[in-house]
Amino acid sequence: MASSIQSRDRIRTGIITTLLVLSLMMIGLLSQQTYKAMESREELTAGVLKDYAALAADELVRRNSAVSFFGFYPLLGRVARVPLDQPLPRLTDLPHRLEFRNEEEQERFSRATRLGRSLYRYHPASRYFEQTGDHIPAQTERRLLAALNGVALSANRTVGTFHVREDGQDFNFLYLPIAEQFFIGLWVDDKAMLEWLEFFVNREPLLPQSLVARGIGADAVFIKVWTKGGVKIFEQGDHNPDMRLVTREFDEQIPGLFGGLTVAAGINPQIATELIIGGLPGVHVPILGGSTGGVLGSLWAFTTLMIVMAIVLLRRERALARMRTDFVSRVSHELRTPLAQILMFAQTLLLDRVRTEEERKRSLTVIDKEARRLSHLVENILQFARGERGSAEVCLAPTPLPPLVREVADQFRPMMRGGNLRVASTVTDDTTVDLDPGAFQQMLLNLLDNAVKYNPAGDVDVSVSAEDGERIALAVEDRGPGVPSSEQDRIWEPYYRTGDDTNAAAGGTGIGLAVVRELARLHRAVVTVADRDGGGARFVIGFKLSTDTAG
Predict the structure, then answer these.
(1) Domain limits at 433?
(2) CATH code at 502?
(3) Which of 438, 460, 429, 435 lies closest to 447, judged by CA?
């Protein structure tokens, strides 16, 4: 009996010891997963800080173009109008010798003249060189003329640059070919150019207005600009050793000045919580406790449950981190592209750089097209946000469907880069369905935009047809690669991108089809996707006929 009891005690002790060891192992594994969660949190923080630093650096590079558009280009263009047989005027005399449309234009031009130390004019055929203002050192002048002799004169009036460093000093020159005969040039005043750069840095915050409205100001951004030779010429903000710096080149805007400028931008890590949508995800470490003996089973179950929960939460956290980072990057890219186009063509019109009425009309067309695209993108994001909050609403009313489809198609055609958009209907124009016209427009625009992105030929077919006595089908068909059957249910999920989509050149935010599904649900409609006969995808929204038509 004693031996049996001792045997049972040894077995029970062995089982308890095994359970305790397993529990400790589970707790150790839980600690490891918690460490990984914290590591993932740090990666998320670093990624978001890097993304916003890249936005600040890109914004500074874009603003740097203003030194060219509002300073160098107008100045050299005006000097080029001085006849070759007349003396080259001094920079300070130019505002008084030239004609201007108004005092504001004259004042702006007068400020631009302070960007130069002297003007020069060079005729390669006769080797005639003339300059006014500060005298260029003889050795620097010889190197400048040697560089100009190597430049082919052409009718293309593109501003070029020449940089040389002598005795620890930078010499920066601009030149503009005129009528395939001579060069007009400017010796750049480096101090004045850096003052312009500082002005455009501080004119507005480098971070988005949404962050500025939350109290995140310029003191959170560190900016540094240096030359190709490593000489720092501009710095602003406090540098933090933990900053993730992002560098960008100025070469596309003013190539060659200072031998090519580089900018570095960083965001103060202490404001990471304010930058991340929804704040930093928490890392929760469960506290295990209890007495010995009979509670070990509970400890086992609790530890196991915590491990499972930690793994699930860790995976969701990592997925959420990737989705947030990808979403911010995609939205930033999608917003930046139309904004850059609008800015470029607007400045072209403001500076009167269009030569014909056709070019003016083309510039206005591009601005209109990109503004429509930007408006559609912003409305998509707002609609998606309303859906996420559960506050999306529609106001349904009997509406003739075919005329509305044709109207939306006409609005979308200017945003297409090619191909044909064909609209067909097998029902009469007075066929009505209960819908919200604004929400319906958003749905159809999203389907059309999706069809064009993944459609190499660009051809899209839209049709309205009767499915049965109670439903009307709106179909959008493209000739792209189609949607794999295994992913036809998942493409409606927010942020989801198919296997082919991630490597495609097409852009997008990944929320367009999610918006379509949510608005279709509010319309009590059914939205589906299938393969198109002959290749491509066929998206269909099935609406119920309104009582006016059905009756």
Answers:
(1) 397-550
(2) 3.30.565.10
(3) 460
Please say which residue of 194, 215, 245 terminates a domain: 194
Residues 483 and 488: their CA atoms lie apart, in Å, by 6
Residue 145 banded pLDDT, cuts 50, 70, 90: very high
With respect to residue 162, please indicate whether it lies within any of the assigned structural domains.
yes
What is the DSSP secondary structure assignment for residue 545, as one 8-state letter?
A: B
In angstroms, the CA 81 to CA 100 distance is: 13
Distances (CA, A) of 514 to 57, 231, 255, 377: 32, 50, 44, 14
Per-residue pLDDT tens over the stretch 493-508: 777 766 555 444 445 5
Residues 6+ apart with CB under 8 A from 235: 223, 224, 225
Q: What are the phi and psi torsion angles at 270 (to 5°)? A: -70, -15
Q: Which residue has the tokens 């095994």?
A: 18
The domain tally of the chain equals 2
Say what the pTM is. Answer: 0.43
Determine the Cα–Cα distance for residues 97 and 95; give it in Å rounded to an integer. Answer: 6
CA 110 to each of CA 70, 116, 187, 188, 420: distance values in angstroms, whole numbers, following the listed order: 11, 11, 16, 15, 50
From 172, 194, 216, the end of a domain falls on 194
**Residue 516 within any structural domain of the chain:** yes
Asked if residues 61 and 253 have their Cβ atoms less than 8 Å apart, the reply is yes
d(CA 123, CA 175): 12
Ranges of beta strands (E only) in 124-213 are 128-133, 160-166, 169-178, 182-188
DSSP 272-333: HHHHSTT-PPP---------SGGGHHHHHHHHHHHHHHHHHHHHHHHHHHHHHHHHHHHHHH
How many angstroms separate the CA atoms of 506 and 77, rounded?
39
Q: Is residue 26 part of a domain?
A: no
Q: What is the DSSP letter of 91?
A: G
Which of 35-49, 153-167, 270-284, 494-508 is modeled with the greatest confidence? 153-167
